[in-house]
Amino acid sequence: MRGRSPDAVRRAIETNDPLPGGGGFAGEVDGSLVRDVLGRYPLFSEEDDATTWSHDPTDLDVPDPVPAGHARTGEGDERLWDLPDPSPFEDEESAVSAVRTAIEGSLGAVSTDGLAVAFSGGVDSAVVGSAFDCPLYVAGYSGSHDVAAARTAADLMDRDLRVVEITHEDIERAVPEVARAIGRTNAMDVQIALPLYLTAERARADGYERLAVGQGADELFGGYEKVARADHRVEAETVRGAARETIRTLSEQLPRDALTLRAAGVEPVAPLLDDRIVREALRLPGSMLVSDGVRKWTFRRAAREFVPDEIAMRDKKAVQYGSLVARELDRLARQAGYKRRMDDHVTKYVRSRLE
């Protein structure tokens, strides 16, 4: 069992507590494969054989992910937990205070042994980085948005920044390594994983064994435009409903990130996905997730306790675009003969690298 002790997981099952504290768990307990409600740890069994399992899909012939919040036995999958639906905050100041306290508690519980921080210059990674006296790492092509944003943020925080300047040779080498590690070849997942992988590689080469990341804040606190608009990309008709819908997608995203980091030789640390933060985020009404068009409103207000206002309120591009990895991977695909007129040409290129 990773993340929590078997006894803690048993208590969560017995009490029907979906958020029993900590940062999630996955593994075997009493003959069942169990994964926490957000799916923060990857867990797979061999297809049609629940007795053969692993946290790493490359260990299995046909890996089948255990759904978040479920137990798997030879009889099939059984839902154990769903996301809580608590009454929302009525007062914004109380919400900000509760979120701030939860962040302080989560960051304070993280050991700094062998720790470095993946740092893009946005509010999420800056809040994480603010708590630890260790190097901050950013990966991107020369002239990329993420490198520039990380430099200005590190200057504002008076922190040491180590830049991993990505080259085409890095991407060509890493594409098959990343695709095999995550068990996915679709363009979006590989584009997201590549800068994280190259960041982790550099941190490991520098002697760090754990990498703290800011994952989870966008999903928990309403960081996406589709949530702010509750538009056609989500089924929900309210901002709060759209945020809950997006939170449920974490079980698909987080295994990709964890497997990427472990393939590079470091263990992921995700303080913003701690249960105490999740509990408070689920209490936020739509007006405290998005206010006057500002996404992650309550999180940004709470973040002012940890980082300068300029960082707390800044917007940031998604990592695959901010690092320029998506653009340059597209260029490599076209140079290899996979033109844009082809359907999903970048995915075809990734698959060709595995052959």
From TrEMBL:
Q: Which SUPFAM superfamilies match?
A: Adenine nucleotide alpha hydrolases-like
Q: Where is this region: Disordered?
A: 1-29, 46-80
Keywords of this protein's UniProt record, alphabetized? ATP-binding, Nucleotide-binding
Where do the Asparagine synthetase domain residues begin and end? 114-254
Please list the residue ranges that the record marks as compositionally biased, kind Basic and acidic residues.
1-14
An example Gene Ontology biological process: asparagine biosynthetic process
**Any one GO CC term of the record:** cytosol
* Record carries keyword Nucleotide-binding: yes
Q: Which Gene3D superfamilies match?
A: HUPs
Entry's Gene Ontology molecular function annotations: asparagine synthase (glutamine-hydrolyzing) activity; ATP binding
According to UniProt, the name of this protein is Asparagine synthase
